[in-house]
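Observation: inputs received (chain + glyceraldehyde-3-phosphate).
Thought: call the complex predictor directly.
Action: predict_structure
Action Input:
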Amino acid sequence: DGDVYKYYADGEWKKSSSSKTVAIINPTTRKTQYKVQACTQEEVNKTMETAKTAQKSWAKTPLWKRAELLHKAAAILKEHKASIAECLVKEIAKPAKDAVTEVVRSGDLVSYCAEEGVRILGEGKFLVSDSFPGNERTKYCLTSKIPLGVILAIPPFNYPVNLAVSKIAPALIAGNSLVLKPPTQGAVAALHMVHCFHLAGFPKGLISCVTGKGSEIGDFLTMHPAINCISFTGGDTGISISKKAGMIPLQMELGGKDACIVLEDADLDLVAANIIKGGFSYSGQRCTAVKVVLVMESVADALVEKVKAKVAKLTVGPPENNCDITPVVSESSANFIEGLVMDAKQKGATFCQEYRREGNLIWPLLLDNVRPDMRIAWEEPFGPVLPVIRIGSVEEGIHHCNASNFGLQGCVFTKDINKAVLISDAMETGTVQINSAPARGPDHFPFQGFKDSGIGSQGVTNSINMMTKVKTTVINLP
Ligand code: G3H
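Observation:
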């Protein structure tokens, strides 16, 4: 069937027996761009069986060989950057330049993972018994890290390639097999990416990609008895997954409401540049986007003017033209954003620009004088709308940040490094950036959310460790 992309299992491209498909709507044209298979539960079962079998021999494949294959996949991925980026443009309206960057970054991540894997998995520990009271030196303990088994990876629409490989590469280097459930928007880019792993020559069944509606196969996948670990990035769904999942390690990254605290001595040009980059890149559809500015009243007017001037320069339009602001991923997302904007309007926020929307395209909007009774003060729009709350003291800013259900990242702008460190310590978020907008990368840095922003820590090293378990052998001497 030329029109419908096949799913990937047991080393082959397959048509689902369901003869149902899932349409992928281009956010810009709002028309069906691609179609993918709607896999059945039976097909998921079969995929799990092959993943289990493949994992057994993969775990015995020498580490250096696993790394070699990952390096190969990384190179192929980079060679295919143009075609994969094209899918990202059509499926998720990512600006063309950023789409290419996502693929290149992904190739680099895969290579880095291979390198890091051979180092950290190539080392174990050796313990002797006589350090613990009452013991003679009669027990030698050897520890090593072994794979968990089958890992389920569920990336979100905003990085269908990068946040897939950030799960795939650590899983594979550590000797696991991997089943990928891509987001609907982004599924074709993900299938192209999986094709690169296919071309690299990984054993059959080691990596699979099942497509379909989350509502139909989502629970079935996440509660499947063959799954030994789930790595998920996305929204609230993660919370329900974690309630339903069995006794398996979970890695969850579930969004944020990253605060940008601006002190009186901050370099306001630097702040404005970072607010634009942090708040509006990919139209604010990043979990690490700046989602609320908490600025000291005395510098608020000056900062808002600077940001306003920069917002006016943002280009708005289709991703093919490399516009800064492109249509948000879906109509329901645009409606949700609009709901937040209307709520703020009704409650008296100052609109720095006129609110404008055409289809899924929402013009960038800065809302000043936002107060805590407005939804936008707490909820994440995942769109190009940024609230500014004026604060009378740093404590007020920290309090707002910590009153959030989220705790992903945050940032603080000041020239006083001592103050910055104290504020960082006080902010209940996984990461605090000093004098820069929040960001996950570089991809080997630890990345974690507190509270409703998730559990576990990602980043190359942490993900590899998380996808292994410790095994010990104790030699008992006479
Ligand atoms: O959307 C969530 C991503 O993990 C954010 O990644 O900071 O590289 O945009 P980023």
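Thought: report the result.
Final Answer: The pocket of glyceraldehyde-3-phosphate is lined by residues 158-159, 286-288, 439-441 (CB under 6 Å). The chain has 14 helices and 27 strands.
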